[in-house]
Amino acid sequence: MRYAQGGGLSDAGRAARELLRLEAVERFGRGEKNKDIAAALRVSERSVERWRKTWRERGKAGILSKGSPGRPRLGPAQMERLERELERGPLAHGWPADQRWTLARIKTLIGRLFHVSYTVEGTWLLLKRHGWSWQQPARRAIERDDEAVELWKKEVWPRVKDRRRRGARGSPSRTRPGSR
């Protein structure tokens, strides 16, 4: 059973479906026909055909559930290792040009370390779930003088601000001046 939004069966649903397949295997052993098995188990005949084919090719083990396909997850030990590696910085992992961690770089690092593939969005969710936050480094000119900026704000800006022209009555028309 498939769903458009990437859903699927829950663990309980998967277990129930597996029990149906195992019941079908017992009926295969008794020589029952696909049509009769499908009617008894209330499934499609096509499903029973697929199950029988798998049973013939791989035996009972082929019928068993393969578990949740789920999204990749890093365990606690893997997260600790990832945090240690992130603390070492991008340079230690081959990114010499820029010393900032990006989601794409972290995604690549996770793939290298754990052989697990995350999307960029999945990487962000993983980091967020473990208490990491998005941060943008402050970009300031090396020559910046914070004292001079504060002085300008206190002394120059009030004088510039007061020089604004007071609004006068006027007309939106370019050919007709405003009347009094």
Topology:
Layout (H helix, E strand, L loop, with lengths): L10 H19 L4 H8 L3 H14 L1 H4 L12 H13 L14 H12 L5 H10 L16 H17 L18
Helix pairs in contact: 1-3, 2-3, 6-7
Based on CA inertia axes, which overall geometry fits? elongated
* Number of contiguous helices: 8
What is the mean predicted local confidence, pLDDT? 83
**How many DSSP-defined strands?**
0
- The SSE order reads HHHHHHHH
Our estimate of the beta-strand percent is under 5%
Q: What are the segments in which pLDDT stays under 50 over at least 5 consecutive residues?
A: 1-6
What share of residues is helical? 40-55%
Structure description:
The protein is an all-alpha fold and 180 residues long. Among the domains are: 11-63; 76-129. The protein is 54% helix and 0% strand. The chain has eight helices and no strands. It starts with 10 loop residues before the first helix and ends in an 18-residue tail after the last helix. The relative contact order is 0.06.
Q: Main attributes?
A:
180 residues; mainly alpha; 0% strand; disordered N terminus
Structure summarized in a few sentences:
54% of the residues lie in helices and 0% in strands. With 180 residues, the protein is mainly α. Helix 1 crosses helix 3, helix 2 crosses helix 3 and helix 6 packs across helix 7.
